[in-house]
Amino acid sequence: MKFSDELIAGINKTWRANHSHPFVQGIGHGTLEPGKFKYYLIQDYLYLIQYAKVYALGIQKASDLSTMTELSNSVNYILAGEMALHRQYAERFGVTAQDFEEAIEAPTTIAYTRYMLAEAQNGSLAHVIAAVLPCAISYAEIGAELAAIPGSLEHPLYGDWIRTYSSDDFAKSVQATVDLMDRLAIDLQGVERDKLKEIFLTTTRFEYLFWDMGNDVVDWPQNLLDAVTETV
Ligand SMILES: Cc1ncc(CN)c(N)n1
């Protein structure tokens, strides 16, 4: 069994919980409240900025030019490809990409992204890839599953999102990361593999928290947001 398959098989219940999350199903069936989607997109834009930096740390830790090039392609795909989707939605919601970029990061966004950055900064390239892998694979799987729901691809608001995450471009970018994980794992022993499994489980759990955040619009308490002008 490939190491990437072993990672998912070892945490199957947690893994599937993301697919059946009400927020995800709401996108697929077109029943999600647009306001929740907008809040999620803003936080996801901020998330992707940090996520691109995690991949960039991988470039620094890579030991060959071909891996560096692959990771650099991933950084470019996130910043220019995936985030273009969010910029297009910003326009549809009547705000600018800069409004998205200048939004306040919610506690979940900070916790998830800074966890990945800490593991990436302190660990090896394998740690970097284990941290980003649930994000990559789960969106590709979710995109494909939602695309199979009749009419989902034509939904006026959610169709673009589903088309992006079920696209060949996204799948190609994810496959490069999966293949890299499998190559890196070949040389690793038990304890090192266990650490990768722990990181993979943690970021899979964070994926669930991120869907929860969107579904419940979880932000800092309003009184703290109102007091923001006191500190900036
Ligand atoms: C939280 C999250 N996880 C994963 C993806 C897919 N890159 C995303 N856009 N946002």
TrEMBL record:
Entry-linked SUPFAM superfamilies: Heme oxygenase-like
Catalysis performed (reactions): thiamine + H2O = 5-(2-hydroxyethyl)-4-methylthiazole + 4-amino-5-hydroxymethyl-2-methylpyrimidine + H(+); 4-amino-5-aminomethyl-2-methylpyrimidine + H2O = 4-amino-5-hydroxymethyl-2-methylpyrimidine + NH4(+)
Keyword Zinc assigned: no
Domain Thiaminase-2/PQQC: 13-214
Gene Ontology MF terms: thiaminase activity
GO CC annotation: cytosol
Record key words, sorted: Hydrolase, Thiamine biosynthesis
Domain of life: Bacteria
Pathway: Cofactor biosynthesis; thiamine diphosphate biosynthesis
Enzyme Commission numbers on file: 3.5.99.2
Keyword Hydrolase found: yes
Broad EC category: hydrolase
A family per Pfam: TENA_THI-4
GO biological-process terms attached to the record: thiamine biosynthetic process; thiamine diphosphate biosynthetic process
Biological role stated in the UniProt entry: Catalyzes an amino-pyrimidine hydrolysis reaction at the C5' of the pyrimidine moiety of thiamine compounds, a reaction that is part of a thiamine salvage pathway.
Family listed: Belongs to the TenA family.
Subunit structure: Homotetramer.
Protein's UniProt name: Aminopyrimidine aminohydrolase
Organism: Kurthia sibirica
